[in-house]
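Title: Prediction job returns without error message
Component: structure pipeline
Severity: low
Priority: P3
Assignee: unassigned

Description:
Job completed but the reporter wants confirmation the result is attached to the right record. Sequence as submitted:
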Amino acid sequence: MSTPWLTVTETGPRDGDAPGTLAVCFPPTGAHGSTFASWRGLLPGNTALGLVTPPGRGTRIDEEPVVDMADYAEAVAAEVRAARGGRRLVLIGVSLGALLAYETCARLLEAGVPVARLCAVAGQCPGDFHGDGGDVTVEDARAFVAGTGLTDPELLADPEFEEVLLPPVIADLRLAGRYDGGLTAVPEVELRAVWATEDPHVAEVTVRRWADWTRGACTVLSVEGGHYAHQENPGAVVSACLDGLPATRPSRRSVLGAGATAVAGTLLGLGAATAAAPRASAAPAAARASFDGDPTDPVALAVAMIRQDTSNPGDGALTEPYARMLQEIFRSAGVATEIVPTPKDGNVHFFARVPGSGKDRRKPLVLLGHSDVVPATGDTWTTDPFAAEIKDGKLYGRGSLDMKGVNAAFVAALLRHVREGAAFDRDIVFWSDCDEEQGPYGVRWFLTEHPGRVEAGAVVTEGGWVLDQRDGVTPMIATLTCNDKRSLLLRLETSSYATHTSKPFTGQAVIRLGEVLEQLGEWRAHIRPNALSRRYFAELAEATADRQLAEAVRQMLDARGEPERDRAGEAVIRLSETPELHNAMLRTTLAFTSARSGYYPSIVPGTATAEFRAAFLPGADDPGRVVAELRSLIGNRATLTVVGNPGESEQEALDRLRGYLATPDSTSDTDVFRAWQTAVRRTHPGVRATACQFEAVTSAVPFREQNIPVYGMYPFTVNRDMLKRMHGTDEHIGVEALRRGTETVYHLLAGLRTDG
């Protein structure tokens, strides 16, 4: 093409014989060089402005757009080499332009042309692109323009303007869709990654991932503004990209127009950590809740979390206000955050990341909590379930136990380390999932829709307990769960015939349902502890001061036949201070959740239904055999149906469950597990700390399916009453137990520090 890609303008005063700087600017999607027009007069002295104008826009409107990244980068690199003239090169790309600058940088370095700095502004990193994008339609381009605010809606509604605007947008979207960032060798160049604090499209965590795309130093800075901050707040972006270069000083106009975060590093000589500190979100006040307490105080945090009503009615919760509160807490501590929306309005995942340090960083540790809680309707509480009332040393509220108390412990412990200036040997990621209780957009959805976004080395989530001796005061045993039970939803239906209430008869559907439910309620599966349960009970026999319980446990573990094991197991449950917990750790259980019948007060209904869950231990009962046994038990008095996913047959549902149950236990041979054991020894001296089987279901399976170890903990001491109130009336945790449990989490994380 005869028309040049690069236009160079001398903007600042020359500084004698100094070589000066050439700042080459790459425009965002659909734009051209004029998007940087406001930068003239803002650049430091001795700096020239190079504007990239691709074909198909601006002065090159009649040319065919380029939709191949390599062609684009090679063309620009050739003209930069010709225009450089011995000057220092800084490549600056905004949004899509960040990828173009990156690819151009790689080609210049391959050709032996030095690049002083690469700047990525409001852009996704190369690792987010895999070359698998499909074709792009006019509607796609129109939606992109409207969604990003690239132009005024009134102009977009003008057909003539649309004919000019949309073709370059389509070309750039195709270019991005066909781009595979993994094909280019990672260059060794100083990199500045610039995040705009009010950018709704490219989050802070996304920008921070640029650190993995250079073999040189990477500094992350933030500026005020949205996705097009280079136009909204040009002085701040100029300062963020060009400060600190040899023989350059920002112009006065640049300083006056810059945000405080970026300019502080330029004028005051502050370190990168200060210059990179994120600023508070500019989200609407209605979408945020402030937190005025000490973020290292788990009780204050738990109170604030409980007061956010994140009840999940079954299809996902409204978690965005809760996430905004967390975002404010972490950003105030200088920690990078990201809020990821789901297809349901207001239903979001929240992430905070404390970066690790050192060349040999391990894969991140993920502290996985969940924002949503089960509803608090249908049963009478003695306190407001969302008031977070503290009385008699207990914190009451929905989610206090499951699992906002754990979330508070995670956040408080992590931010205490941040306050101390900790350096970890890996990234520590706090993730608050939005759909753990119910709903389609939980952890599995996120990992499927956003592959590679969370590269976990290990996960800690809800799970094991700390139990006291029979005196209710002395801690006895602490557990870190390494696998979950899995459940199957079953539906029971009885039928007779409908008639007038004046003519009742023997065998009414409701009566039949009650009789069958009573029979199922008396059913007991055999005692079949799996490997994790056996490990736990062996430790319990050594930990308990109750000699009868210890002897019953040993008899159960040593039993050679089913009858002997069942008798001993029933004794263990009977002697336990937490019988429901230990029963669930030893066998398949049935939990009855609903019953329905009738629709008019003068009609005897012809059908009645109930639903219940069968929960299975991995390595114990086969779900198909249990279903067959239950059907044999109830005979022809009722119909028992397996409730699978929509469109799923019974066999498919059973096979899916068998796959979940076959997922291996998480190994205890990891530094995270050992760090937890050390932490327990610090906070609960003399208490046994062991791997365990969790009696419930968590979001761990998608990670375990990838052979990523997942550990579960409720780090605070619980008793039978607390456990019975989980998902129940007057849910609560102990205030001092929460503080002590937070100490355990703190010491676990301390085991991963590299700064002593």
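Comment from assignee: result matches the submitted record. Residues 249-288 have pLDDT under 50 and may be disordered.
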